[in-house]
Design brief:
Blueprint: H1 2-20, H2 24-43, H3 47-83, H4 102-117, H5 127-135, H6 137-140, H7 148-155, H8 163-196, H9 204-234, H10 252-258, H11 261-272, H12 282-300, H13 304-322, H14 342-363, H15 367-379, H16 397-413, H17 430-446
Helix pairs in contact: 1-5, 2-3, 2-4, 2-5, 3-4, 5-7, 8-9, 8-16, 8-17, 9-14, 9-15, 11-12, 12-13, 13-14, 14-15
Length: about 450
C-alpha cells in the first residue's frame, strides 16, 4: 500500500506538471499548508491557536484563489463603477494564467481543514496519504470534489486488482469518452456557430444553438467525470458520483441534486447549513438559497454572466422552496417503467427549457451578448432554421441529431444506474455485447468532433 500511494503521488504530480510544471509548486504549497494546519488544529490545547491555524489556512487558500481567479474581475469592476460617476481609473491588472484545477484542489483542502477544526475527523498523520487525497490525478483538474471522510480511508486501505471493478471502470471510461468526443465536441461546433454569430441568426437556429450548448456542457463535464471515476476504479478507488442524469429532472430542485453533485453537496455542507440551511423564517431560507447560487455562479468564473446564471437558477428554485415542494422528486423519473407519463415528459421538457435559458448566460462572452442572443430569438418572429445555418460542421446536422437520439435512448435506459453502461448489455450474449462496445469505440474514432478543451478546465 505504501508503494502504491507513492506511485500515485508521483504520477499525479507528473500529470499536473505536464500542463505547467511551475504551478506544481503552488499545489505542493497548498497541500503542505493544509496538512500542517490540520495537525496543529487537532493537537493544540489552545483554542486560540486552533482558530488562528484554521483561519490562516482558509485565508491563504482563498487568497491564492482570489489573486489568480478574481483579482482582475474586481479591479476592472471597481474601475467601471468609478467611471460611471466620472472618476477615471486605470486599474493594474495581472497578466497571469489561471492554474488549472485550482478551484477543485483548494476545495479539497478547505473541506479537510473545516472537518478537522469541527472535530468530524482526526488529522492525517501520513503526509503521502494526505497528498494523494489532494492531488489524485483523475480528479485533480476537474473533480469530482472529494471529501476526506470518503477518500482518505480508501487511500489508507490495502487495494488489490479486481477484474470486475476494472471491467466496470472501463465501461464507464468508454461511455465518458463517447459523451465527450462524439456528443460534446460535435455539439460544440453547432453551439459555437450559433453563439459566435448570434447577431446574424434568429428564432429556431438560436434555440437549437442553446440546446446544443446544454448538451455539450453535459456531455463534456459528465464525460470527464465518467472517465475520472472509471480510471479511479482501475486503482481500486471509488470516487464520489458527480452526475445522475440531470436532464431527466422534473424540476429545478431535482436538477441541482443531480448536476455536479460533489460541488452542490460541498456548498450545502460547508456554506448553506452553517448559514442556517432550511431552518428559520422563509426570508432566511430565501437569503441562504440566493447566497448558495450566487457563490456557485461566482465559483465558476470571474464574470457577471456567471453571477446572473446563478441568480436565474435561484429564481427558478424559489417557488419550489417557498411552497415546500423542493423535495417532491427524489427517485428516478418513471422508476421501473419504460416510458414517462405525459405529465412527467412535460415536466422534464419545461425544466430543460429553464436550464437551457440560464446556460445562455453561462456560455455568452458578456451580459450584453447573452441579452442580445435572447432578444434575437424573438426579434423576427419564429424564424425556422435554414439548411445553411450550420454549414461547415464535421457532422451533417441530420447525423448529429441521429447520434443525439441514440445517446438519449441509452441514457434513458440506464437512468437508474450509476452510469448508462453499468448494466446495459451485461446480460447479452458475449458476441453481441462485444459488438456493442466496439461500435461505440469505432464511433469515437470515426465520428469525433474537432478537439475541444474540457470546459471545466477553466474553473
Amino acid at each position: 500500500m505504501r508503494a502504491q500511494n507513492i506511485l500515485l503521488l508521483v504520477a499525479s504530480y507528473y500529470f499536473y506538471a505536464c500542463w505547467d510544471w511551475r504551478f506544481l509548486f503552488l499545489l505542493i504549497f497548498s497541500t503542505l499548508l493544509d496538512y500542517y494546519s490540520g495537525r496543529i488544529i487537532e493537537h493544540s490545547t489552545s483554542q486560540k491557536v486552533r482558530r488562528i491555524s484554521f483561519w490562516i489556512s482558509v485565508v491563504v487558500n482563498l487568497g491564492f484563489l482570489g489573486v489568480f481567479k478574481y483579482y482582475n474581475f474586481f479591479a476592472q469592476s471597481l474601475a467601471d463603477g468609478l467611471a460611471t460617476v466620472g472618476w477615471q481609473v486605470s486599474p493594474t491588472l495581472l497578466n497571469v494564467i489561471l492554474p488549472v484545477g485550482i478551484s477543485f484542489y483548494t476545495f479539497h483542502g478547505l473541506s479537510y481543514v473545516v472537518d478537522v477544526y469541527n472535530r468530524r475527523i482526526t488529522s492525517e498523520r501520513n503526509f503521502i496519504d494526505y497528498a494523494v487525497f489532494v492531488s489524485f490525478f483523475p480528479l485533480l483538474v476537474a473533480g469530482p470534489i472529494e471529501r476526506a471522510t470518503h477518500l482518505l480511508p480508501q487511500i489508507k486501505s490495502p487495494r488489490q486488482f479486481s477484474f470486475d471493478k476494472s471491467a466496470d471502470g472501463m465501461r464507464q471510461i468508454l461511455w465518458g469518452l463517447f459523451k465527450k468526443v462524439v456528443i460534446a465536441d460535435n455539439c460544440a461546433e453547432f453551439a459555437n456557430i450559433a453563439f459566435n454569430n448570434s447577431d446574424q441568426f434568429h428564432g429556431v437556429t438560436l434555440i437549437l444553438g442553446a440546446c446544443f450548448f446544454a448538451i455539450q456542457i453535459y456531455g463534456d463535464f459528465s464525460g470527464y467525470s465518467d472517465i475520472a471515476l472509471g480510471t479511479a476504479r482501475l486503482f481500486g478507488i471509488e470516487l464520489l458520483r458527480n452526475f445522475a442524469f440531470p436532464y431527466f429532472s422534473r424540476d429545478i430542485a431535482e436538477f441541482w441534486r443531480r448536476w455536479h453533485i460533489s460541488l452542490t453537496t460541498w456548498f450545502k455542507d460547508y456554506l448553506y447549513i452553517p448559514l442556517g440551511g432550511s431552518k428559520g423564517t422563509t426570508a432566511m431560507r430565501v437569503r441562504n438559497t440566493f447566497i448558495i447560487f450566487l457563490v456557485s455562479g461566482f465559483w465558476h468564473g470571474a464574470n457577471w454572466t456567471f453571477i446572473i446564471w446563478g441568480a436565474l437558477n435561484a429564481l427558478f428554485f424559489l417557488p419550489l422552496l417557498i411552497s415546500n415542494r423542493n423535495r417532491t422528486h427524489v427517485d428516478s423519473v418513471a422508476k421501473s417503467r419504460k416510458l414517462p407519463s405525459v405529465k412527467e415528459l412535460l415536466s422534464i421538457a419545461s425544466t430543460f427549457a429553464l436550464v437551457t435559458l440560464s446556460w445562455i448566460f453561462f456560455r455568452a462572452e458578456s451580459v450584453g451578448h447573452a441579452v442580445g442572443y435572447i432578444s434575437n430569438i424573438f426579434s423576427d418572429g419564429f424564424v425556422m432554421v435554414k439548411g445553411s445555418d450550420f454549414a461547415g460542421t464535421t457532422l451533417h446536422p441530420f447525423l448529429m441529431l441521429f447520434l443525439l437520439m441514440i445517446f438519449i435512448v441509452i441514457e434513458w435506459v440506464g437512468r437508474e444506474s450509476k452510469f448508462a453502461l453499468e448494466h446495459l448489455a451485461l446480460n447479452w450474449k458475449r458476441p453481441l455485447r462485444y459488438a456493442f462496445y466496439y461500435v461505440l469505440l469505432m464511433t469515437i474514432f470515426l465520428l469525433s468532433g474537432k478537439e475541444q478543451q474540457f470546459i471545466y478546465f477553466q474553473f
